[in-house]
Write a structure and sequence with these properties.
400 residues, 8 strands, three-stranded antiparallel sheet, DNA polymerase, domain 1, hpI Integrase, Chain A, elongated
Length: 400
């Protein structure tokens, strides 16, 4: 049971020279305080008895008021029993029903995830949901915010690593859980003093290069494939992404006829909201024409017309298509003897690596991929490369 004591808070005096009388509550070695609303000068306080001294003109009245407040806190603490938390205690003292307060981690997280869904931030919502599900599954039940402490998180991290998860996957889970916790603090659901991430190290490992060279791509293109077969579609998705300067699979899936303007693919990347204008060279145009189906809202037929953009269903369809595409790309990679399998993400790294090997500058490659290079402050004052310069490099990289 939590320990309660009435004290004069001498840490900071008020402007009139008085100090607040507080109730100090200690539970599981954690210290919380509740202000009594009464303040007085230090010489009026009887520290031995923990009450207002007899020399104060209103000592009797103030001590009755303090006793009633102390008794109310004590009753509330007893009613909470093993489910004590400062948030639940304050809810009882304020007269608010506990059901109105999202006292558990999962209840609060579900609300945040739902808000993301409503704002069409489906990708982030899925990442958050996966992290929450993993934590709750590990705990075996929903947990309160006070239970999400250093000990639990440290054990959870150990469990994920020993289960075979990679460091970056563990990092993604912990960043999501931390983000939810930070939102809870800002929304006054949990007290900042309980923040458990001060001593939690969230590490990332540098991912292995996934680039393939021109000769590797040439080998893949030499494989005789039946048109519109799964392998043919997978290779064409990869090649189209490569030929459009490493456009992401998600952005590729959402391309429409309206994105083709004056011989260029003009789009806004969904991940970064950055605008791109990419030259549509004949090789990419041919792939689009071969894969396009009349009546489709999109240049490719990954997402059905009746599925709303950025919806959860659309996201799942794209994820499944990425998974299927990578499966067939892996088979093709094995067939031609590539050291590491080609994936939907390889196209972006491949474009950059091939450009670098051809002697193009890091600055030009970064501009082509929509990245900043070097000092961010300096970049503000630099002109972007002319479109013709980027197009010339683009053409040289993709020509086989």
């Amino acid at each position: 049971m939590a320990n309660i004591k009435t004290l004069l808070d001498l840490r900071r005096a008020k402007s009139d020279g008085t100090f607040n009388i507080i109730f100090r509550i200690i539970d599981c070695k954690k210290v919380y305080t509740i202000n009594s609303g009464i303040s007085l000068q230090e010489h009026y306080w009887d520290n031995r008895k923990g009450q207002v001294g007899k020399t104060h003109p209103n000592a009797k009245l103030l001590n009755i008021k303090l006793s009633k407040h102390f008794f109310k806190i004590e009753q509330a603490v007893l009613s909470l029993d093993d489910e004590f938390s400062i948030e639940r205690l304050k809810a009882i003292l304020s007269g608010k029903p506990l059901v109105d307060a999202p006292e558990t981690f999962q209840v609060f997280a579900d609300k945040i995830i739902q808000q993301m869904m409503e704002a069409n931030r489906v990708g982030n919502a899925i990442v958050y949901q996966t992290a929450v599900n993993r934590l709750i599954t590990y705990c075996g039940k929903d947990v309160s915010f006070i239970e999400v402490n250093y000990k639990l998180l440290d054990q959870f991290s150990h469990h994920l690593i020993t289960s075979g998860l990679k460091v970056n996957s563990v990092s993604n889970y912990f960043r999501s859980i931390r983000a939810i916790y930070n939102k809870a603090i800002k929304m006054k659901v949990v007290d900042r003093s309980l923040y458990p991430f001060h001593d939690i190290s969230i590490k990332n490992e540098k991912t292995a290069k996934r680039a393939v060279l021109k000769e590797d791509i040439a080998k893949l293109l030499e494989i005789p494939l039946q048109q519109h077969s799964p392998s043919w579609r997978a290779l064409n998705y990869f090649m189209l992404s490569f030929c459009l300067r490493g456009i992401s699979f998600t952005d590729l899936a959402y391309l429409k006829q309206s994105n083709i303007i004056d011989g260029r693919i003009v789009y806004r990347r969904r991940k970064t909201h950055k605008d791109y204008s990419v030259k549509l060279f004949p090789v990419a145009e041919t792939i689009i024409n071969q894969m396009n189906v009349p009546g489709s809202d999109y240049l490719l037929t990954i997402i059905p017309n009746n599925v709303p953009e950025d919806s959860l269903r659309a996201k799942r369809i794209i994820q499944q298509c990425i998974k299927t595409t990578n499966k067939y790309l892996k088979r093709l990679s094995v067939e031609v003897g590539l050291g590491s399998p080609v994936t939907t993400y390889s196209s972006r790294h491949s474009f950059a690596t091939i450009a670098k090997r051809m002697g193009y500058s890091n600055e030009l490659i970064a501009e082509a991929l929509g990245h900043e290079y070097g000092n961010k402050i300096t970049n503000i004052y630099l002109d972007t490369f002319e479109e013709e310069v980027l197009d010339a490099m683009h053409q040289q990289v993709i020509v086989m």
